[in-house]
Amino acid sequence: ECYVQNTAREYAKIYAAEAEPLEGFGEVPEIIPIFLVHRPANNIPYATVEEELVGEFVKYSVRDGKEVNFLRRDSEAGQKCCTFQHWVYEKTNGSLLVTDLQGVGMKLTDVGIATLAKGYKGFKGNCSISFIEQFRALHQCNKYCEMLGLKSLRTTHQKQRKATSMKSKNLPNPSTVKKTVSKKAREPRDFISSEH
C-alpha cells in the first residue's frame, strides 16, 4: 500500500512540475504520503499512517477502471485527476495507469496503480491490466489535457479497434481449419490474475 501510493505520489510531483507553470492551469492534485509504522508491542505490529483529510471525500476515479466518476467529471479536481491519469499513461507509453483517485479537494489518498502484466520498469501495480484497457476506451480529453499537449486516446483506440476488426474479417473460418497444436503450446503456462 505504501509502495503503490508513494510511487503514484512521485508521478504526481513530476506532473505538478509540468502543469503548474502553464498559464491558467492552476492548482494540481497532490497524492499525500503514507508511512509504514512498526509497533512491536501491538497485536498488529505494522500500521500505515497518513495525514487526515477533512472535508467532503470524493471518488474522482474508481478501481474498476471507469476513469472519472461521471457525477464528478465536471469538477475542476475531477478533470485534473483525469488529466493526471492521461499524463501518466502517455509518459509510460501506456504501460502504467494511476487509478482509484479519491480524496478531499486536490489532496488524494488510497490510490491504485495498474501496469501491463510484465510490470513497468520493475514495478508491478495492485490493479488489473483491464483498468488500462478500459481507461484507453473511456477517457475523454478535457481542457487540461489540451493545455499539457497530451495526444487524444480516441484516435489511437479507434485505430487499434479498426485494425483488430479488419484482421478478424480476414481470418479463416475456425471450423474449416485443421487443428494442430505443437508440444510447446500444450505445456501449462503461468497466468497472473489480480482481484480488486
Key structural traits:
196 residues, alpha+beta, Protein kinase-like fold, four-stranded mixed β-sheet, 8 strands, disordered C terminus
Question: Describe it for me?
Answer:
This protein has 196 residues and is an alpha+beta fold. It has a single domain (1-153), classed as Protein kinase-like fold. 36% of the residues lie in helices and 14% in strands. It is built from six helices and eight strands, in the order αββββαββββαααα. It has helices spanning 2-19, 76-91, 130-138, 143-147, 153-170, 183-186; strands at 30-31, 34-38, 46-50, 58-59, 96-99, 102-104, 107-109, 112-115. The strands form three sheets. Strands 1-7-6-4 form a four-stranded mixed sheet. It is globular and about 55 Å long. It starts with a helix and ends in a 10-residue tail after the last helix. Mean pLDDT is 78; it is low at 159-196.
